[in-house]
Specification:
It is built from 8 helices and no strands. It has about 200 residues and is mostly helical.
């Protein structure tokens, strides 16, 4: 027997998008974006107290004005030589990677996508508490969820077509929870019509 159209829409479209959006945090560009942010803050902070600045000069200065290794590292405490050098190398690597792979743009778009779809998820209780949730659910899907995902697909920050793999268990768990809470309030559906039937319509 066909299921309720609200349940089908949740299972096939809305929830797979919402669950997939959470997987964006596991993508390489998002993880490197977070690491790059922390590394940048550390480089700036250590540079402010004169630790990483000599290393940056050593790595980025021209041959004409580049100091010797001993001269460049003389202001740095000896126990910080190696950590400061590694930190700067990681920071430079991440910066080059982001520039060449548009990593920062993709991560920023993914972060925005996560926030928008999280907000959309927050609207689900209001939509599903109605006797006919389909209008609000369709509007949420067509005006908020799909346009946001489509933009991220165009910019390579949504890597799936259309959903992340192996999300079935999480989708089913969310579906069962939502249906267990709200399904009893939905108007019954005429199996030959996509719209909920009204009381007395069959009289």
């Amino acid at each position: 027997m066909p299921g309720h159209p609200v349940k089908r829409t949740l299972e096939r479209d809305v929830l797979p998008y919402l669950v997939s959006a959470k997987r964006l945090r596991r993508q390489w560009f998002f993880i490197l974006y977070l690491i790059f942010g922390y590394a940048t803050d550390l480089v700036v902070a250590l540079g402010a107290i004169g630790i990483t600045a000599p290393v940056l000069v050593l790595l980025t200065g021209t041959d004409k004005d580049k100091p010797s290794l001993a001269t460049a590292l003389s202001p740095v405490p000896s126990w910080l030589y190696f950590p400061a050098f590694i930190l700067v190398l990681v920071w430079i690597f991440l910066r080059v990677t982001f520039n060449r792979e548009d990593g920062q743009m993709r991560a920023v778009l993914a972060r925005s996508c996560i926030q928008v779809l999280r907000e959309a998820e927050g609207h689900l209780p209001n939509a599903l508490s109605k006797s006919d949730p389909m209008p609000a659910l369709t509007e949420l899907l067509e005006k908020t969820i799909r346009p946001t995902v489509d933009r991220n697909i165009q910019e390579n920050s949504w890597p799936w077509t259309p959903f992340a793999p192996r999300i079935e268990a999480e989708v089913d768990a969310k579906l069962n929870k939502l249906c267990g809470t709200y399904e009893r309030d939905w108007a019954p559906v005429d199996l030959l019509s996509p719209r909920p039937s009204t009381s007395g319509a069959d009289a």
